[in-house]
Design a protein that fits this description.
The structure is a homodimer of 216-residue chains. Chain A is mainly alpha-helical and 216 residues long. Chain A is built from ten helices and no strands. The structure holds a DNA duplex (30 and 30 nucleotides).
Chain lengths: 216, 216
DNA sequence: GTTCACTCTGACCGACTGGTCAAATCGCTA
DNA sequence: TAGCGATTTGACCAGTCGGTCAGAGTGAAC
């Protein structure tokens, strides 16, 4: 709001525009990596700048040299997250083979739960709290994208290439089933025991589940 | 540890044993209700005693007259939660009709997501953080109960009354699909729009999904 | 209506948290 | 290698948080 004032000087080198220095790139990415680790494990309010700073190997004032506030770090993390998260959905091709498209969407999503459990939990944390920091993107970007894909799926069903299932709930079911293995990992591991790889069994089970569900 | 000392006097009337007074019963339940509301929405660290006190219509010191600490309130809430949460699983009858038993377990679980979304989110919050406050119950009570039911399901499959699916992942899928509608309610509503009841469509969709999955 | 345990509260405390700042240090370039 | 902006830090601050405490208020049994 004001910048005539006193503290408006959290320089990031990018006062004017873009040219990030080597050190800036390095430290910003260190901070975001550390923030992902901490935020995903403890939620926004449950995380402290000291934790993030320590995880990143920097001092707290140094964090605040690169980001103006705790909120800003979290926001930057969130900004990219929804895109990453929805990328597999964007990759679904309307002119592909319907069952294959949906199956491979599901598999990509499961793979993301395996490879990026922290991102999954960060996202889940935000949803659980009612998504106070991404309402806009949710109501617009997300809905638009999902509706578009739901239309495509509906087309497939009308053409008789897919069992008649509600497209929205089909998409929800893919989200729920794949993200569960990242978000509730402790629970899954507690049940399966420490020597079982949850994702192995999950892959086979979900193949069978969606195979049977989608048969026309 | 010590009780000779100074502060060992957070009387609750139940110093000796049981007899809770009328006021105690009332206020303890007010506090637990308020704590459920607040903890489920903001997580443990994200919630403050002031929020809970205000929600309960009591003063903060008065909260601490009934419970020795914030932790204790949360613990009391958690204590009952796992039992409530697993009750439907306990209700599954080994000598019932296999598909009907599983379908009605699923429906009961979905009903719980509809009727007790706060409990669901409280549970989800705890899982996301790695369940630091209920590791014991998870590793023992939960595993035992789930394994028992998995055995029953395996028996049904061996008897040819059920499609051959991994029992553990079948149970996980029921958890994931039903709890998703409570835990990610904002997301679901953002996609479906404000005028649609998510649980209506969910009920139909899940009936079809598990119907197709379990056909022998 | 006195009594005594139960209930409640305002004032307070030490620890922690997000954030600031002046000054020190670093590292690139001319 | 001198200079100057980029980077880093110790000390500090105001607000919040969980929790304590001495004492005031309350209600039911006698």
């Amino acid at each position: 709001m004001n910048d005539t004032g006193n503290q408006a000087r959290f320089a990031q080198g990018q006062d004017a525009d873009k040219p990030l220095t080597r050190i800036q790139k390095l430290n910003r990415s260190k901070i975001l990596e550390a923030a992902l680790e901490v935020f995903s494990a403890h939620g926004f309010r449950g995380s402290t700048l000291d934790q993030i700073a320590s995880e990143a190997g920097l001092s707290k004032p140094n964090l605040l040299y690169y980001f103006p506030s705790k909120e800003a770090i979290h926001a930057e993390l969130m900004a990219g997250l929804l895109d990453i998260w929805l990328a597999p959905l964007r990759a679904m091709k309307p002119d592909g083979e319907p069952r294959a498209e949906i199956m491979s969407y599901m598999r990509r999503k499961l793979e993301m739960s395996r490879e990026m459990p922290r991102e999954s939990r960060l996202f889940a944390n935000e949803m659980l709290q009612g998504a106070p920091r991404m309402e806009d993107e949710l109501g617009h970007d997300l809905k638009t994208l999902v509706d578009a894909n739901a239309q495509v799926i509906r087309g497939w069903i009308d053409a008789g290439k897919l069992a008649p299932v509600d497209p929205h709930h089909l998409i929800f079911s893919i989200w729920a089933l794949t993200q569960h293995y990242a978000d509730f990992e402790v629970q899954v591991r507690a049940v399966l025991g420490p020597d079982t790889d949850p994702f192995e069994g999950a892959g086979q089970f979900l193949d069978m589940l969606f195979g049977r569900l989608l048969a026309p």
